């Protein structure tokens, strides 16, 4: 499960006044990223076929990902899910969120952003946005995706990246078009969630505005999610999410244009797919679109 923004902010600001001064000087966008290099589980441990994929970015980094083919024969695959994970650890700790999809007939492709897992570099907002697009461009060039639906599934931070990526993909009329976008447990904007979390902690409350201003507002999800239409959007958010408050998901849904669907859930943050009924809701969304 992803370590959320709230915990990262508390960790970032639990030090001395010098820490606050350094953040004021350098900005606090780094609190969105908490990567590690530990391998928690590999697909073969779950009896899944997989291939390692390595992609070179235009700015000289190398990204690592996993391709998980559908359990059905290749000719019978229903489509492909491009998964963007949350802000902590790496794809090996997030694998369980999509490990159930190959059995349901879907290929899955998931990547680590720069600095995560076996990917090189260090993460920042611009870099991870670039990485998410690099992964999608590789995916749509694969023969397994020809004439089949491609869905984007983003959880937490991955949802924020996915909104920005999908809106640009649609507005540029990139091919092939996405068949659907699923956003799970995502904040309504980078600057917006930073200001909310800073304002909720007494030590950082006086700094909520100047520190949040150090984070770009170019990629606020509420400003971009409406531009994904006419591609269908599904927004998932738990009413007891202790990391990203429920109202953040509501704000994204309200800002989205039709066709759209909202799925309120009742699990901890980024634990949606431990509940079979929520899996079925996502499968239903994909089959309809």
Automatic annotation (TrEMBL):
Pfam families: Hydrolase_4. InterPro entries: AB_hydrolase_fold, Hydrolase_4. Residues 76-186 form the Serine aminopeptidase S33 domain. Keywords: Hydrolase. GO terms for molecular function: hydrolase activity. The keyword Hydrolase applies. This is Alpha/beta hydrolase. It comes from Marinobacter lipolyticus SM19.
């Amino acid at each position: 499960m992803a370590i959320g923004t709230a915990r990262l902010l508390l960790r970032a600001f639990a030090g001395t006044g010098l820490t606050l001064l350094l953040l004021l000087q350098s900005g606090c966008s780094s609190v969105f990223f908490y990567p590690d290099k530990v391998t928690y589980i590999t697909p073969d441990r779950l009896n899944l076929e997989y291939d390692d994929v390595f992609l070179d970015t235009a700015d000289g980094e190398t990204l690592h990902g996993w391709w998980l083919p559908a359990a059905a024969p290749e000719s019978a695959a229903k489509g492909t899910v491009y998964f963007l994970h949350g802000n902590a650890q790496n794809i090996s700790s997030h694998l369980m969120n999509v490990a159930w999809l190959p059995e349901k007939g879907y290929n899955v492709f998931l990547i680590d952003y720069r600095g995560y897992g076996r990917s090189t570099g260090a993460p920042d907002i611009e870099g991870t946005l670039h990485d998410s697009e690099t992964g999608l461009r590789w995916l749509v060039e694969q023969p397994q995706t020809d004439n089949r639906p491609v869905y984007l599934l983003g959880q937490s931070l991955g949802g924020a990246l996915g909104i920005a990526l999908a809106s640009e993909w649609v507005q540029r009329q990139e091919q092939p078009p996405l068949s659907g976008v699923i956003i799970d447990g995502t904040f309504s904007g980078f600057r917006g969630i930073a200001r909310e979390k800073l304002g909720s902690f007494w030590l950082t409350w006086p700094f909520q505005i100047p520190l949040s201003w150090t984070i770009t507002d170019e990629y606020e999800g509420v400003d971009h999610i409406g531009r994904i239409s006419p591609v269908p959007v599904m927004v998932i958010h738990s009413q007891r999410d202790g990391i990203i408050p429920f109202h953040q998901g509501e704000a994204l849904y309200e800002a989205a244009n039709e066709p759209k669907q909202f799925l309120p859930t009742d699990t901890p943050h980024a634990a949606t797919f431990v509940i079979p009924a929520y899996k079925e809701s996502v499968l239903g969304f994909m089959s309809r679109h």
